[in-house]
Amino acid sequence: MNKKIYIILTFAAIGFLALLVGIVHTPIKESNGKLVSMEMTENIWTENKSLDIARKNKEQDLPEQEQAPENSILDSEDQELTEEINEQNLAALEWGDESPFHAYESYWVFPFEEMEYADDKEFRELREIFSEIQFYGGFPLGDEEKYKICKDKYAQLLKNEITVTVPETGEECYLEKFDLVIDKHEEKPYDLERYYFYLFDVDGNDAPELCLFEFLCPGIIDFMCIFKYDFDLDKIILWENFGSHYTLLFGGNSIAGENGNANEFDFYQVDENANPIFRTGFVWEGALTNGNLVYMVILPQYKNANKDERIEQMKRKAFYEKQTGSYYLRITEEQYEELSSHYFKAREKAAEELDKLEMSYMELFG
Predict the structure, then answer these.
(1) Cα angle vertex 126, ends 123, 130, to 5°?
(2) First to last CA, the chain
């Protein structure tokens, strides 16, 4: 090959490769020249006075994703996650206003050691507030006649003679086909001998709900579904389900959640439809603070209720997490132990009562 032609072809090939590299590293642009953002958009928990303001914030939060072209790199999984986050944002509005002080997107980015301690006056108020919180909800069986009617209905449900209805979707299904209950990896996906039950008034309507659960290992519940008989509709409905074995029942209308690191304890009171109406909790942190333990209380919050001015004043000092709308106030280890003792006493008492209520299928219906 002529040497001159060879040199020309070589430079042409190099130029073509350089062009390809430039294309790969050029950011995707919209028609207006704006770069398409590939970062997760911020979750703004405005908790403002109206849903209209929230929807406006939602539109402002996600401009790139809403306007992204069809060939956007954002996949459907990212979009589903964003939709789920925004649904949670709207649902949280009724808890109260977002703090203008010490607001962070996530607990994970708190500068923990910069947190101020509650002063003596604030702790005295916290002590008074927590002494009034009913952590233990009790385990009443409900009205005797209603108990008999509900128990018969639940027996029919477990025998697959009647269906359960999922209120959110309207889906009706027999338990032997119900994904939240069956285990497709077992030889018998639906097996009454594998389940255990509590039967008591969970929602405070003077009639019992059926709690069906399976053990992950001795003493540790794997999942739980709570079924309710609706007298007006003459139907069994799914009242609530818990996929985590860190969820605990503290009695009627009282539910707690704990994490696997045993350093966070969340408590909720719920209404007759299992919607939280009150929440609080306790956290200690060491992993994110280089071993320097920081103790915190999650300030009590009431949904759709008059604000407690004592708590409102404490919010000025607390750290606010936008993702959950929760306020964390630092306290000493001794204060943590005193305040959380109300929670742990209720936890212990609830565990004792649940041990008495726990029954196999044959014990309850045999």
Answers:
(1) 145
(2) 94
